[in-house]
Amino acid sequence: MHQSSPFNHRLLPYLLVLPQIAVTLAFFIWPALNAVWLSTRQEDAFGLSSEFVGLEHYIAIFHDGTYTRALVNTAVFSTGVTVVSLALALLLAVMADRVVRGAMVYKTLLIWPYAVAPAVAGVIWWLAFNPSIGVVAYFINILGYDWNHLIKARDAMMLVIFAAAWKQISYNFLFFLAGLQAIPRSLIEAAALDGASPFRRFWTVIFPLLSPTTFFLLVVNIIYAFFDTFALIHATTAGGPAGSTETLVLKVFMDGFVGLDLGGSSAQSVVLMVMVMALTVVQFRFVERKVQY
Amino acid sequence: MATVDFIGVEKTYPNGHKAIHGINLNITDGEFVVLVGPSGCGKSTLLRMLAGLETVTGGEIRIDGKVVNRLEPADRDIAMVFQNYALYPHMSVRENMAYGLRNRKTPVDVIEKRVAEAAKVLGLEGMLDRKPKQLSGGQRQRVAMGRAIVREPKAFLFDEPLSNLDAKLRVQMRVEIRRLQRELNTTAIYVTHDQVEAMTMADRLVVMRDGVAQQIGRPLDVYAKPRTTYVAAFIGSPGMNLLEGVISADGSAVVLGKNGAMGRSIALPVARPGETGRPVVLGIRPEHLLINPQQGDTVEVRSVLTEPLGADTIKYTLLPGCGQSLTVRLPGTHPSGDTDVLAVGFDPAHLHLFDEATGLRLED
Description:
- The complex is a heterodimer.
- Chain A is an all-alpha fold.
- Chain A has a single domain (65-290), classed as MetI-like fold, CATH 1.10.3720.
- Chain A has helices at residues 12-38, 56-62, 65-98, 103-111, 118-129, 135-142, 153-181, 185-193, 198-209, 211-227, 230-236, 248-258, 262-287; strands spanning 41-43, 50-52.
- In chain A, strands 1-2 form a two-stranded antiparallel sheet.
- In chain A, a hairpin with a 6-residue loop joins strand 1 and strand 2 (50-52).
- The longest helix of chain A is centred in the N-terminal third of the chain and has 34 residues, at 65-98.
- Helix content of chain B is 24%, strand content 32%.
- In chain B, helix 2 (93-103) crosses helix 3.
- Chain B is elongated and about 75 Å long.
- The model of chain B has no long low-confidence stretch (mean pLDDT 88).
- The A-B interface holds A 184, 186-187, 189-197, 200, 204-205, 208-209, 211, 293 and B 51-53, 72-74, 78-80, 82-84, 86, 88-90, 99-100, 103-104, 131, 147, 151.
């Protein structure tokens, strides 16, 4: 907290942040404004001219059944991804925290999925669960369930949820592990002496103390599921079957670049932009201040 | 309300390091025993073994005559106060104190009654709904005590509970812990590295070093008759002066200096004939050195540093010729001067003699 600026010249600080501002303007602000502008225009079929249509695209997407379906898909998908990846990461972190021998190997292995490119991860899962050649699909069939994400909407949704969660577990695991290791050992010992069973110790002492980490990860995971899973879904189900795994981000791509409805696609991306802004505000307001216990 | 017995207790870590080398100690009901020693001496390990937080790799620990080696911490019915207090930060003071009772399915009215009583005893009545971080260090310490008291356990264990407090508060809490323990008459085992705490609080002291109990006894007995040179130097502030020397030709005195190199001899109260030339360590406490005595031999020492404490004065001096230091405690105030030369006499009634090789006390 400097009372006065440590710089001698008044312009120097502005000069120093100029590259950052230039990058932000060129790659974030300008495209965003462009999207807003595009969302108010309608192109002709050949892309040669466009005309101003006001908010018509916005009105249209909210009357479009496929958009509402994408909204519901996104809600189901992001809830599923967040719950599965947080729960499994916490479980793995609690177990890793107990490991004494070979802890580094164990941790490194668990962090690996994070290094896999989203599209590659998608292909791995696609192969494993492929109804014709997939190993996992084969075993599920033996167990008596006819797995086929190519025609069953529910199977397809489960597949993308697990694939997306699998990639995010590493990240959550790291934060949970750091959170667990920050809890003083003596607190757990005190709880043990206070007669709390390991289960009770976890739910009454460890889990409440992890709540700042959990809340932070909750927001990060929702943002991930909303915006960072395009490549993975595209490589696994490509939104199918029949749009049952088409999320909002995927629909922006499909409508804009496959359907070439640039105006409508832009309107969708502006809606997404508003959502990500809202989530960012939540993150800053609550996470930066930390959840109080 | 319980007895605690350590019978040949040992601790060897999986990496082969032996932290505790066979401790034998019987603690009677209501006794306040202090384990004291420098860091790494095994005192905390021993306490944690009693609590069940460390496994026992040899010997037996008994609480009320029952072997608890394999018992879970929760089933030993003991309460522990940690150095960092280990309060649950997300719970209020009330919840912190009630936690142990709630885990044991104590009826709600009993919990409320005990928490209220403990809060009253500890002066925490107005703070029951606060969170630990809204409390001062001393108050947190009290909550940690409260958490132990409400359980009405068989024994209290304290692991350096005052180390995080400032000096003044430490003295105050020291008195308070002792008063509480007397009132409740609960067996207590207290670990500290502070020999003043150890001396003032203990019914009995266990001076530890490298996993071995060097001496077990009442504080004043340990002070008056330290069993080893280590205990002699550790207990007392400042510790006992230890000077190298050899028994004189007629066995009636100790000649100071390695192999008697200094030539000065200090008369022994009881002669040790037949031990001529035996290398010994002569011990004398700083308060038993006399300045300019009317009678007896004196040694001239040079003062290098003076610490005025008000009630008395500590002078750090050097013996000429051999470089050994001698600490002198003088009652009252004395002007300081770096070149002070004092004539110091050794009170024969308070001389201690130790074997040089083993460090063990030589009895008269």
